[in-house]
Amino acid sequence: MNILRKKKMEIKTALILCAGLGKRLEPITLKTPKPLIELNHITVLERCISVIINLGVKKIFLNTFHLSSQIFNFINSKKFPIDIQIVADGDEILDTGGGILNMINNSKDNDFIIFNPDTLWSKDYINEINKMQNFYFSKKLNNLLLLVNKKLSFDKDLKGDFNLKNYRIRKDAKNNHIYIGCQILNKNLFKNYKIKNFSVSEIWNELLKKHQLNGFKSSNNFYHLTNLQTFKKLEDL
């Protein structure tokens, strides 16, 4: 008797948000785009790409705006073992929401894992993100954000963004969890939006109103290029 196995759901395409101006890291980012800042002789963008490769993702879209030629040259010279397509924001920066929409319009996929490269991604996140992905599909979600308790943040000045209870995100007086720059979103969330400058937090806020914004808790220490002072401290680690 033939037994039909259900095909494992997995995300095939990752997005990396690389268009930001990095103003809080000036003067470094006046000449170097934030994704190409190095710590221990490796750029934060390469750290992010390495994690995505180890997740088994097949394709990466990344967007550019500020000092975009440097990112083009970096990707072309590194020859990463994964299909990477650069999608420029255009004449005006699109912010996170517009940048995501501009990238997903180049794909036939429905679900995307999206990274901010200014988190110091490492192999410690791989198993955690795989569990996050399994949870997303098993619960038939259309959104899932990776959060961490602010006690695990290297930068103790960072305030919490949300509170998290039973995988449901909300905002309240506590807000003791930080969004750490990894989320899974379904394309349908963008169906009422046009490609223009808008923040993905607009979509989050609509989901919050409906009590439909979901979170997955990270147990890793959180290192993030918040500003110039934090970068200097990270250099000394």
Can you summarize the main beta sheet? 7 strands, mixed
Distance between the termini: 59 Å
CATH superfamily: Spore Coat Polysaccharide Biosynthesis Protein SpsA, Chain A
Shape: globular
Tally of separate helices = 6
Helix-strand string: EEEHEHEHEHEEEEHEH
CATH architecture: Alpha-Beta Complex
What share of the residues does DSSP label as strand, in percent? Answer: 15-25%
For the biggest β-sheet, the strand order reads 5-4-1-6-10-7-11
Can you put this structure into words, describing what you see?
- With 237 residues, the chain is of the alpha/beta class.
- It has six helices and eleven strands.
- The strands form three sheets. It has a seven-stranded mixed beta sheet with strand order 5-4-1-6-10-7-11, with helices on both faces. The chain has a two-stranded antiparallel ribbon with strand order 2-3. Strands 8-9 form a two-stranded antiparallel ribbon.
- It has helices at residues 44-54, 68-78, 95-104, 126-138, 201-209, 228-235; strands at 13-17, 38-39, 42-43, 59-64, 83-88, 111-115, 143-149, 163-165, 168-170, 177-186, 215-218.
- The protein has a single domain (13-235), classed as Alpha-Beta Complex (Spore Coat Polysaccharide Biosynthesis Protein SpsA, Chain A).
- It is globular, with a radius of gyration of 18 Å.
- The protein starts with 12 loop residues before the first strand and ends with a helix.
Summarize the SSE layout with pairings:
Elements: E1 13-17, E2 38-39, E3 42-43, H1 44-54, E4 59-64, H2 68-78, E5 83-88, H3 95-104, E6 111-115, H4 126-138, E7 143-149, E8 163-165, E9 168-170, E10 177-186, H5 201-209, E11 215-218, H6 228-235
Parallel strand pairs: 1-4, 1-6, 4-5, 7-11
Antiparallel strand pairs: 2-3, 6-10, 7-10, 8-9
